[in-house]
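Today's session is about reading a structure prediction critically. Students often jump straight to the picture, but the first step is always the sequence itself: look for stretches that repeat, for charged clusters, for runs of hydrophobic residues. Only then move on to the predicted structure, which in these notes is written as discrete structure tokens rather than atom positions. Here is the chain we will use throughout the hour.
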Amino acid sequence: MRKNSIKNTRINGEVQKELSTIIRNEIKDPRIHPMTSVMAVEVAPDLKTCKAFISVLGEKEAKEATIKGLTSAEGYIRRQLAKNLNLRNTPEIRFILDESIEYGVNMSKLIDDVTKKDTSVKESEE
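Below is the predicted structure for this chain, in token form.
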């Protein structure tokens, strides 16, 4: 089965949706930051493993604590996934911190700063 087949894409979407619900509503670990979201999920074609890309809005310590909390709750999360999704195998979940949104915001801010400097230089020349 190809990695980006329609079936695999559908499974990725379902696992992402369930994972978001479980993290938001069912896990009571205080280490997990309330502003945590599942950005993407990549389930292997054999359904044995899964990479969950997690985005956390907050400081570096909050991000690290959230990943530790999710990793320690992985067994519970897998049980809930197995109960809610009808898959042949329930994948082992690896939580990966996704900082792409933060990177994009920083790049946008840098571009805005350069644009402001550029316009102020042009105005002072005129």
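Discussion point for the tutorial: The radius of gyration is 19 Å.
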